[in-house]
Please model this.
Amino acid sequence: MAPSVESPPSSSSGWGGLIASLAIRAAVNPRVAVDLLRAAWAFRRRNWWRQPPFLPVPDPAYLRWRMYTAYGDEHAVPPVQDVIRFARWRRETMHV
Model:
């Protein structure tokens, strides 16, 4: 029997499901909320106010690259726990 190959993490409901899950976790835990907001702000596209949708969201090309380097698939959607763990790590390591 051939060894199984793990597929990259993904959510069946995609990015919308990830954002909804993170919002719920943030509503329950204020520390998580602060960590997630700070991480999201750090990932915002430069000069986001100059081009539509005029929201501080990550550049799609940068986000694809981050997913590729983290999960080996540029279309991967990270698990909720990975995002929370990264936001906490960022706070503890960078003291932000």
User: Anything to note?
Assistant: The mean pLDDT is 89. Residues 33-94 form one domain. Residues 2 and 8 are 18 Å apart (CA to CA).
